[in-house]
Amino acid sequence: MGDAPNPPQKILVIDDDPAQCEMIATTLSYAGYQTTMAANGTEGLARFQADPPDMVVVDFAMPGMNGIEFVNAMRAIETQRTLVLMVAGYAQSFLAALDISGGVDSYLIKPILQQDLVVRVADLFAGRF
Asked: Does the N terminus or the C terminus of the chain have fewer Cβ atoms within 10 A?
């Protein structure tokens, strides 16, 4: 008998734009990942604590708790390092903030092409970033 298949990798998608959140989660689901969605950083942190994912895809600009604040809070409570892919609509603001945040593994600038998203996530899981 062969080895049992590995369970799908879990990805938590956090974005305050429901259409963007749904697009990312659906694209990654079709690519074979198990996805969960959250509408903001606070909800995302609660979902992270309840069922830690293998990766978080988080929007940079969100009301309340922005993406960098979420990552810092997540890093403070995680028990093993979680991959982080940040998405941003405003490259200049994001790149300036990224200089002060060592917690982000990679990023994509909106608008996000589905193929680019799937390739970047696969590359991150494979350790190519």
From this structure: N
Q: Is the dihedral of CA 27, 110, 125, 50 positive or negative?
A: negative
Q: What is the model's pLDDT at position 88?
A: 87
Is the whole model's pTM more than 0.85, yes or no? yes
Residue with tokens 């990552």: 71
* DSSP for residue 33: -
Token pair 């590995």 in the structure block, residue:
6
CA nearest to 25, candidates 44, 49, 2: 44
How many Å from the N-terminal Cα to the C-terminal Cα in the chain? 34
Q: Which domains does the chain have, with CATH numbers?
A: 10-125 (3.40.50.2300)
Report which DSSP code applies to 108: E
